[in-house]
Specification:
This protein is α+β, with helices and mostly antiparallel strands. It has 6 helices and 11 strands. The longest helix is centred in the middle third of the chain and has 69 residues. Keywords: Signal.
């Protein structure tokens, strides 16, 4: 009997422990399900904004000297050539007189040629505003591309602009304060003078009214004056002689009255071209241009004549002829 009671007690205790363990596992599972897992998100990566810029590299090539364009068309775009160039480079060419700058290619040219050491292509000369056969002083510096972060440059520029704006605001405030103080001082000094001026003006007005009243009383009958004025009106209404027609002014000569046909290093070639153009009825001639010889047609006395000469040269095959002034 006692043994059965002991077995019942042990069974009851084991059952209670098992139920307790199950409840503990259920609570842990519930906590695991209900508790959210918090993870930190990585910040979005911002790609830098960059651009390519040309940076001066005088260590590669830098020279200031005279350059010239021979007036002939050329291929290859804008370029400049020098006898001391080893490898082709990208350069910045600046006209020292005008300050005009262009980016061009730098090539090697044959050494020992007469004239300036730099030779310009047709495109480079046109961008610089160079005249054919006329030397100009240029500065040539090599440049290389460099990748620059635009955001950094913009931040530096914004900071400098903010400092400049703050300084301008402070200066403006000081100027306004000084102006207000000066205006107050002028108002205080001018107050007595304004009162005296008002009194003088009032006295002047009273004297003027008295003079006008006296003149009205003493004025004669206006009818004779009207009768005397009648002949003057009749004379004014008399017809005036018609002016003679003015002859129209002659057309002004163009600013560039000559058409340049070519530039030659051999004078004999220039003379041969002059003879050919003269045989076609054109007023051609050869003129010296430094170490070269220039062949031109003209001068034209009007824009219409210049256009006619240009069309005639195109018909003869000289489509690259340009208008110049001598």
């Amino acid at each position: 009997m006692a043994r059965r009671a002991l077995v019942a007690v042990l069974w009851t205790g084991a059952t209670a422990l098992a139920l307790s363990a199950c409840e503990t596992q259920d609570d842990e599972a519930a906590l695991t399900r209900e508790t959210p897992v918090i993870t930190e998100e990585e910040p979005a990566r911002v790609e830098p904004v960059v651009e390519e810029r040309l940076t001066p590299r005088p260590d590669l090539f830098s020279l200031q000297d005279e350059a010239i364009w021979d007036g002939r068309p050329s291929l290859g775009g804008a370029w400049i050539a020098h006898p001391d160039v080893g490898n082709p480079e990208r350069v910045e060419v600046t006209d020292v007189t005008s300050g005009q700058s262009i980016t061009a290619a730098l090539f090697r040219r044959e050494a020992g040629l007469p004239g300036p050491v730099f030779q310009l292509s047709a495109d480079a000369a046109q961008e610089l505003g160079a005249e054919p056969g006329v030397p100009l002083e240029v500065e040539v510096i090599a440049v290389r591309p460099e990748v620059v972060d635009v955001a950094d440059d913009a931040a530096e520029g914004d900071a400098e602009e903010a400092e400049s704006n703050a300084a301008e605001v402070e200066d403006a405030v000081d100027v306004v304060a000084e102006g207000e103080a000066a205006a107050a001082a002028v108002d205080e000094a001018a107050a007595p003078a304004d009162d005296e001026a008002a009194e003088v003006e009032l006295a002047s007005d009273e004297a003027a009214i008295a003079e006008i009243a006296a003149a009205i009383v003493a004025a004669p009958d206006p009818e004779p004056a009207i009768e005397a004025a009648a002949p003057a009106v009749e004379e004014a209404e008399a017809p005036q002689p018609v002016a003679e027609a003015v002859a129209p002014a002659p057309a002004a000569a163009p600013d560039t009255p000559f058409m340049q046909v070519g530039m030659f290093g051999v004078p004999g070639n220039a003379e041969a071209l002059v003879e050919r153009l003269q045989a076609e009825g054109l007023a051609a001639r050869a003129l010296p241009a430094g170490s070269l010889t220039r062949v031109v047609v003209g001068p034209a006395e009007s824009d219409a004549e210049l256009a006619e000469t240009r069309q005639r040269l195109r018909e003869l095959g000289f489509s690259d002829a340009i208008a110049i002034s001598l």
